[in-house]
Design brief:
This protein has 319 residues and is mainly β. The chain has a ten-stranded mixed beta sheet. Strands 2-3-4-1-5-8-7-6 form an eight-stranded mixed beta sheet, covered by helices on one side. A two-stranded antiparallel ribbon has the order 9-10. A hairpin with a 2-residue loop joins strand 2 and strand 3. The protein is globular and about 65 Å long. The N terminus is likely disordered.
Length: 319
């Protein structure tokens, strides 16, 4: 295939944000603050929250009559990518202005298989980061790194969120969904999982950005009888910050879903929580990085493949 006939793909630069609609917005707002987000702006029915990274917002909580997933926001490389999306995807909107923090332009489309919304964004104004975390020095049995009289001391508080890392959905037709996103976007499978018959049912996908180091997965899908958002995930600084956040959420009376533990695929230390509307959100730390040299790993689905240590996998986690 000559370069001129290679199909163009929409180039995603990063995963940026997610929107949830809540019937009880006050409870949702209280949870999001305890989870480690900082409120940025209230506009009409929407409340925007940021992390301490450069994105102007990472979560939007929208007041609504019913709880619902409002879609994920992906930053694309250029305005041309927005135009490409508008031309490639039959139900894509015209390019429109965003009214949230950071502004920018957007094209929204509904997933062609299950109908959930995706928002492609460009031109958001970034913010100055507020990273005051230090990389801790650890003492190992045969290798001591911390200076004499240097202690480890921590403040009890929520785990400040850095950025949005990934999101995933249960989809009703894995192959059609997988083909749509890998054919039209720069998404590449880090992991492909099949059932006992050899049929693919799950994939963890990363952004294919050449030599640039990217997270092991930005988007994942698995097949099930009914489409729904499974979880969205947010990076925190390190394990100590993560467990301090776990304790804070527990002491505030919020409901833990699963964690703390260590994943196999992606290696992240994970901690999943239910928000008051029943959506699952995750703190993660210490995830793997990949690039264009990373080959797709193929394996059979197994409960043992999800974590190497931590609490037992909840029976309903992959439903």
């Amino acid at each position: 295939m000559s370069p001129s006939t290679i199909p163009q793909k929409i180039q995603i630069a990063r995963i940026a944000n997610v929107t949830y609609r809540h019937a009880d917005i006050d409870r949702a707002r209280a949870f999001l603050v305890d989870f480690g987000f900082t409120e940025v702006k209230r506009s009409g029915t929407k409340t925007y929250y940021r992390g301490y990274g450069s994105d102007p917002w990472v979560v939007c909580a929208e007041s609504a009559a019913e709880n619902a997933f409002g879609g994920a926001g992906l930053i694309v490389e250029s305005v041309e990518d927005l135009e490409l999306a508008r031309n490639l995807i039959p139900n894509a909107t015209e390019v429109y202005d965003l009214d949230g923090p950071g502004g920018g332009k957007c094209v929204t489309f509904n997933d062609p298989v299950d109908g959930w919304p995706m928002h492609l964004m460009h031109g958001q104004a970034s913010r100055d980061t507020e990273d005051d975390f230090k990389e801790l020095q650890f003492n190992f049995p045969n290798s001591k790194h911390r200076a004499v009289n240097k202690t480890q001391r921590f403040q009890k508080r929520p785990a400040p969120v850095h950025k949005m890392g990934h999101f995933g959905l249960c989809v009703t037709d894995f192959q059609r969904t997988y083909d749509f996103y890998t054919n039209n976007f720069n998404l590449k499978a880090s992991e492909l999982l099949h059932d006992e018959t050899g049929r693919y049912t799950t994939s963890f996908m990363h952004l294919d950005r050449g030599k640039e180091l990217v997270d092991h997965h930005a988007f994942f899908i698995f097949e099930g009888p009914k489409c729904h958002i499974h979880h969205s995930s947010f990076e925190v600084h390190d394990f100590d910050v993560q467990v301090l956040g776990h304790d804070w959420l527990r002491e505030k009376g919020w409901k833990n879903c699963w964690g703390v533990g260590r994943h196999v695929m992606g290696s992240q230390i994970f901690d999943y929580w239910y928000d008051p509307s029943g959506f699952i959100v995750e703190h993660y730390a210490d995830g793997d990085l990949v690039d264009e040299t990373t080959e797709t790993s193929i394996s059979q689905t197994s409960p043992d493949g999800l974590h190497v240590w931590g609490p037992d996998l909840p029976d309903d986690f992959m439903q």
